[in-house]
Amino acid sequence: MPVDSPSLSSELVEKAHKIGAEIAAPHAAAVDRDARFPTEAFDALRKARMLGAFIPQAFGGMGCSIADLSGVCTALAQYCSATAMIYAMHQIQVACIVRHGQSAPHLRNYLTQLAENEWLIASATTELGVGGDVRTSLCTVERTGDRFALAKKAPVISYAESADDILVTARRAPDAPSSDQVIVLTHKRDMTLEPLSTWDTLGYRGTCSLDFTLTATGHVDQIVPQPYAEISSQTMLPTSHILWSSGWLGIATAAVNRARAYIRAEARKNPGKTPVASVRLAEVVATLHSMRATVNDAVQEYMRVADDVDAVSSMSFAIRMNNLKINCSQFIVDIVSQCMLICGMAGYKIDSQYTLGQHLRDAYGAALMINNDRILGNTSSMLLVSKDD
Q1: Which stretches of 109-252 are assigned E, i.e. beta strand?
Q2: What is the CATH number of the domain that holds 22?
């Protein structure tokens, strides 16, 4: 795991705020309204060389840490939730290749190309017919000599049509059990995407998370060497829950900032009189601080143990990462809902400078990104056999 650099973190977060305020924010309403990819924001992120931020410097990247990425996601989400979530999902895929693909020459070369070209990577880990269980695949890798082919019906592939490459989970072979999975790097030039639906949702509309039938071919060197079970526990699960939660923290922060601005405006109208909702603002700021501490604690823990295979593969670590996701997906709804009450009709109206409609709609999506009930079910099973710590 790259060593955290305070100066790098500060510089990246400053860039993220600048791109967010100057590029992402002016287009955020249109991205949400039209359910379109935030093209302008990602053009700016590419220009700033931020898609390759997690790639080690030896491959041409910045060599940043998970703490750096967390700060960037929190910053971007304060201006455009879709931009932050897509950035998070891309970096989750990059982390999987960085941490588990360097032993393969093809993937090492890919990291260099990724850093040079600032390619965007999507993910196809869910599949129709398995009930939302990402640790089960019906799709299989069919090998013929040094070539492979696969076909997958995925209920969600976020920003697939705007991505350059997609990481796909599949069974290792036709005769492998559904849990014996690998993850395969598929290139846009060698795949077809057949949309199975439209994308007209309550929130996170700019992620363009349609369902597709994905078919792809390629060289067997594009298969990441380590089993997906190891990649998932050691990298994909903790990185996903940390970066998703960081984005939700950004949305919650933006909502609280609007509520605070509203209270200050009300106070200026009536000098010497404290607005009635000030007490509620104090409460919601305390909740926001709790959410931020929860995210920061998870970041610091992962930074400490990321290279300890036993630690990151343990049930106790998985339980804590699951709890991070559960808690933050609840925090965001509570915080934005309280901010809506503070702002009243000003927060409820769409054309108000204090509007919180999109914040609230996006907030309710957090519990559905791997459904909280499924995560709680997995956690309850682990609790039956894991040791207390």
Answers
A1: 121-124, 142-144, 147-158, 165-171, 181-187, 191-195, 209-219
A2: 1.10.540.10
